[in-house]
């Protein structure tokens, strides 16, 4: 029954099989039939993608042409922000969290419902400067899934676990590109305790983090995760910190104070990291470079 929704080359072969499993993995009794996986996939293929992940900056021309930008190299990041999957708005605008109703940029800026703090982003930066944030601020962006969709809960366990593997592969490819550019030869000793990986990785929602586990975690606390609690196959060195932030979506009911606190804490942590010349940039040992949290 799903075959008639397949629109050819854009859909990966495995999608049909995985979509079939979704009702088992995540029963969504309230879900309307019109929002089922096949319809979603069909809708996804009709949207014109402009969105790209950002492990490195993207020049204007490559952004407009929607091609991987080779004009900027990967940079060792201070912070990698990991969303669930791009919204339809983000997919077509090219900018993460671009939906006008999404409050992520207010939370990143440190200006949310009358609360103000020194945010992750400086005040004079804006959402549309995402293309240069990797080299300008050491802040990169990715999403677990690279498929347009507005309803995170529509993605079941099978898809989430495939997305996890793909995310890990992209993260490892980022590290590989960095090693290739920073090391003069493959045998070079590298004592960097971060492996040149992002010093901080922040998941902008509990759902995509919980699905890094099998079975998915039933409960995730916001904020810094202890290194002992990370997924068993987590691909980054233990020195790289993992943070989980509450979703910026209004759907998750919580007080403003509770929503803002992890963003404030992460911003304070980020401000402790020197930029440029963050401690993941050189191969020499960097244990002293940023204060290690007590764990
Ligand atoms: Zn380019
Ligand atoms: Zn190195």
TrEMBL record:
- Annotated region (Disordered) at 1-43
CDD domains noted in UniProt: UDG-F2_TDG_MUG (cd10028)
Q: Where is the composition biased (Basic and acidic residues)?
A: 7-42
Q: Which GO terms describe its molecular function?
A: pyrimidine-specific mismatch base pair DNA N-glycosylase activity; uracil DNA N-glycosylase activity
| Highest taxon in the source lineage | Eukaryota
The alphabetized list of GO BP terms reads:
base-excision repair, AP site formation
- Know the name of this protein? Uracil-DNA glycosylase-like domain-containing protein
What species is given as this protein's source? Thraustotheca clavata
Task: Identify the InterPro entries for this entry.
Answer: MUG/TDG, Uracil-DNA_glycosylase-like_sf
Q: Which PANTHER family match?
A: G/T AND G/U MISMATCH-SPECIFIC DNA GLYCOSYLASE (PTHR12159), G_T MISMATCH-SPECIFIC THYMINE DNA GLYCOSYLASE (PTHR12159:SF9)
Positions the record marks as coiled coil are none
Keyword list, A-Z: DNA damage, DNA repair, Hydrolase
């Amino acid at each position: 029954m799903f075959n008639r929704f397949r629109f050819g080359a854009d859909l990966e072969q495995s999608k049909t099989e995985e979509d079939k499993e979704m009702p088992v993995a995540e029963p969504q009794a309230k879900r309307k039939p019109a929002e089922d996986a096949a319809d979603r996939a069909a809708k996804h293929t009709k949207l014109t993608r402009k969105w790209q992940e950002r492990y490195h900056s993207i020049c204007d021309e490559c952004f407009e042409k929607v091609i991987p930008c080779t004009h900027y190299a990967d940079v060792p990041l201070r912070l990698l922000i990991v969303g669930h999957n791009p919204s339809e708005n983000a997919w077509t605008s090219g900018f993460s969290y671009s939906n006008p109703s999404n409050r992520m940029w207010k939370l990143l800026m440190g200006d949310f419902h009358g609360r103000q703090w020194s945010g992750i982003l400086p005040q004079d930066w804006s959402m549309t400067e995402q293309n240069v944030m990797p080299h300008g601020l050491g802040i990169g962006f990715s999403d677990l899934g690279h498929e347009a969709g507005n309803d995170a809960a529509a993605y079941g366990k099978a898809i989430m676990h495939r997305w996890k593997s793909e995310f890990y592969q992209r993260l490892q490819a980022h590290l590989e590109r960095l090693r290739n550019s920073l090391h003069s030869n493959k045998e070079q000793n590298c004592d960097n305790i971060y492996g040149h990986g992002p010093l901080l990785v922040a998941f902008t929602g509990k759902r995509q983090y919980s699905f890094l586990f099998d079975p998915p975690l039933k409960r995730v606390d916001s904020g810094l995760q202890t290194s002992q609690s990370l997924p068993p196959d987590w691909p980054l060195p233990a020195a790289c910190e993992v943070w989980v932030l509450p979703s910026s979506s209004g759907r998750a009911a919580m007080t403003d104070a509770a929503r803002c606190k992890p963003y404030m804490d992460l911003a304070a942590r980020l401000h402790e990291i020197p930029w440029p010349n963050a401690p993941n940039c050189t191969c020499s040992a960097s244990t002293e470079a940023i204060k290690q949290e007590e764990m």
